[in-house]
Amino acid sequence: MGSKFPSLFRYFNRLAMRPDRLEIRTNTACRVASRLLPLHHPEHAAISGIPGLRVLGMNSRRVRLVHLPTGGRLDLIESRASSGRRTRDTKSEFSYENSWHDEAGCRLWTNDVLSPQEAACTELWSPRPWTALHSSLLMRAIPLWNTFRITPAWRQPRAG
């Protein structure tokens, strides 16, 4: 599975900020969740995904995620409604999308607490004076990108 995070942007249909969560409508909620959930890669001593992200629950159209360090909630919602789709169908699809990282100890998101590897990343998630501004700008920029068909240039963060 060679998907990179920048290609996930193509899966997003709509973003909505709610008072208690961020909702992303997507055509592949389970696939997006599988790329966002944290995985430990011992061979590289690295973590992919978002450290501290956990599955809160799911139903026929929604995968609910929570970020343990911040308490933030993210709901990934299937854009296409299907009257015959059930929660077990979503769970089955979720299981399939996550089957490619089945190695023991790899799935950090199955733990109820932060792993030592994730705890080492908490500095990345601590609020900064500019956090609210960046969040507001991003939420306003994404609809503009879609309206004017602008493709964002995703950059790697600076080391350290």
Taken from the alpha-carbon principal axes, the silhouette is globular
Radius of gyration: 16 Å
Lateral strand order in the biggest sheet? 1-2-7-6-5
Oligomeric composition of the shown chains: single chain
Mean pLDDT metric: 81
Describe the structure.
- The chain has a five-stranded mixed sheet with strand order 1-2-7-6-5.
- The longest helix is centred in the last third of the chain and has 17 residues, at 131-147.
- It has helices at 5-8, 29-36, 87-97, 116-119, 122-125, 131-147, and strands at 12-18, 21-26, 39-41, 46-48, 53-58, 62-67, 73-78.
- With 160 residues, it is an alpha+beta fold.
Can I get a quick summary?
The protein has helices at residues 5-8, 29-36, 87-97, 116-119, 122-125, 131-147, and strands spanning 12-18, 21-26, 39-41, 46-48, 53-58, 62-67, 73-78. It is α+β, with helices and mostly antiparallel strands and 160 residues long. Strand 1 (12-18) and strand 2 form a beta hairpin.
Topology of helices and strands:
Blueprint: H1 5-8, E1 12-18, E2 21-26, H2 29-36, E3 39-41, E4 46-48, E5 53-58, E6 62-67, E7 73-78, H3 87-97, H4 116-119, H5 122-125, H6 131-147
Parallel strand pairs: 2-7
Antiparallel strand pairs: 1-2, 3-4, 5-6, 6-7
Helix pairs in contact: 2-3
Can you give keywords for this protein?
alpha+beta, two-stranded antiparallel sheet, 6 helices, globular, disordered N terminus
